[in-house]
Amino acid sequence: MAYALQWIRSFFFMLQMYLMMLIMGLLFFPWALVSRKGAYAGVKTYCRWVRWTASWMVGLRSKIRGKIPEGELLIAGKHQSFFDVIMIVSVVDRPKFIMKASLKWAPVLGQYGMRIGCVPVERGKRAEAIKYMMEEVKSGFAPAGQLIIYPQGTRVAPGDHVSYKVGTAVLYSETKQKCVPAATNVGVFWPRYGIYREKGTAVVEFLDPIEQGLEKDAFMSRLEEVIEMRSNELMKEAGFDEIPQND
Question: Which pLDDT belongs to residue 247?
Fold first, then answer.
């Protein structure tokens, strides 16, 4: 019975979440067309709405830990579900993403993503994707702010392991910006697929920045180590006891 009631709550939460995406997208669209400030206001208002409604509709609270990144830099985060995206965007000043190219055609998400300067890249074409990322970043098409990338390139369920991809190291090297790792446990409560949402406290934690000066291999090793170690600790804190296994 408890599971069924939570599933019903989750269903109505998800229903209103996507309905509000459409409503807020339309409400902020005129402002977003004339100013990026309108686009930022729209996406941040929506993300805060989702966090707030999750807290009372399904009992999923959300907490940001660590110093919120500011200025021109990279954020390299653990990606477990849509909710870690929601949480990061709700607090950083000028978020922009390396995103799947197909998302630029998604209603509302695509239009607002492109308006705030997200960089679409094709999966499976690593060399071309990296080149395109750098061209977009260097050209200034992607506006100043916090460039968010998910080094594993996909959502990874708690307990699973996916290798970290070199694109983050290329951006770190070419942009000459520091990189802030971000750990999370959101996948324990908000899975990659499905409707059911667990009660609890989802956390995204910004870790100490990795300053410029590391070689590619050293940077990737440190990035993966700190993100995976802290994410495992956060997942254990949330009640998930399975230790992710390497391939």
Answer: 44
Gyration radius of the chain's alpha carbons: 18
Q: Quote the CA–CA distance of 78 and 184 in Å, as a whole number.
A: 6
What is the C-alpha to C-alpha distance for residues 84 and 181, in angstroms, rounded to an integer? 13
Structure tokens that stand for 176 in this block: 């000459």
Kindly report the CATH number that applies to the domain delimited by 61-237. Answer: 3.40.1130.10
The C-alpha atoms of residue 138 and residue 240 are separated, in whole angstroms, by: 41
Q: Where are the domains of the chain?
A: 61-237
Q: In whole angstroms, what is the distance from residue 54 CA to residue 221 CA?
A: 35
Contacts of 141 by beta carbon, 8 Å cutoff, 6+ apart:
117
Tens digits of residue pLDDT in 160-178 = 989 999 889 988 988 889 9
The beta strands (E) that lie in the chain are given as 60-65, 73-77, 95-100, 119-121, 146-149, 179-184, 200-206
Torsion of CA 42, 43, 48, 52, to 10 degrees: 90
What the block records as the tokens of 226 is 């700190």
Strand residue runs (E) in 78-161: 95-100, 119-121, 146-149
Nearest by Cα to 147 from 213, 91, 98, 189: 98
Helix (H/G/I), strand (E/B), else coil: 97: strand
Question: Band of the pLDDT at 122, cuts 50, 70, 90?
Answer: confident
Q: Are 146 and 92 in contact (CB under 8 A)?
A: yes
